[in-house]
Fold this protein.
Amino acid sequence: MDLIPQPKSKFLKVKCRLCDNEMIIFNHAKSKVVCNSSDCSHLIAEPAGGKAFIDAEIIEELK
Ligand SMILES: [Zn+2]
């Protein structure tokens, strides 16, 4: 098994602050991520110099 150092990127399970919709996002998102609920378009994450700025409740970090 290779032990390759992983970049600090990971997937996050987040919950929208506005509608409580849960979704999986990438913490180094390269483009804006909006809530995937059809009647909510809250900006969940946007790129901020490599790491994404996340405006949502982080429920869990996925390995
Ligand atoms: Zn939402």
